[in-house]
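From the pipeline queue, job 12 of 40. The input is one protein chain; the requested action is below.

Action: predict structure.
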Amino acid sequence: MNKRILLGAVLVFMLAATLGGFAADTSVSWMTSYNKTGHVNVYAGAGFYYGGLNITGGAEYIIGNFDIGPVPLEWGIMAQAILGFSNYSYATGLDWGAAPMASLHWGTNFGGLARFDFYISAGLGIFGGAYWAYYNGPVGFGFASYDGVTWMFSKDLGLLLEFGYIGWASTGAVGIVWKI
């Protein structure tokens, strides 16, 4: 079994178990919602992964809100893209990927300063790459996932820390989220 699929299944199980535990407790006052139906979130980030600079960006439309007990959740559709540049001793390369995904958010607020919006997303994407003087990769279709946390330092702007994966193109990024 693919290790990434197994890891994804374990993370989904852990999330379900955690939310189930919160749903049984009716005093979860630190859970909150940062997205409302109709919101658009714009993502932009950069980071280093596999020997090079990666840039990532995308947008998300929040379709709806729902509660599991006292836990407010938001869901939507997201489109993300990765462009990665690498410089290895044997080759210079370019990886890219783009994907539409379904997303799920939940937020926390601990005393006003620790305001975090967590999200997970999954879908199918298109990816490819080329390594000059070594390898020209084919275009492929595969699993895509973007997962992250945003520290909401204002009502509409937050500092983002995320991991994105589309086929073989992946990135760990630091960036911003702007909620329109």
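Job complete. Confidence is low (pLDDT under 50) at residues 20-27.
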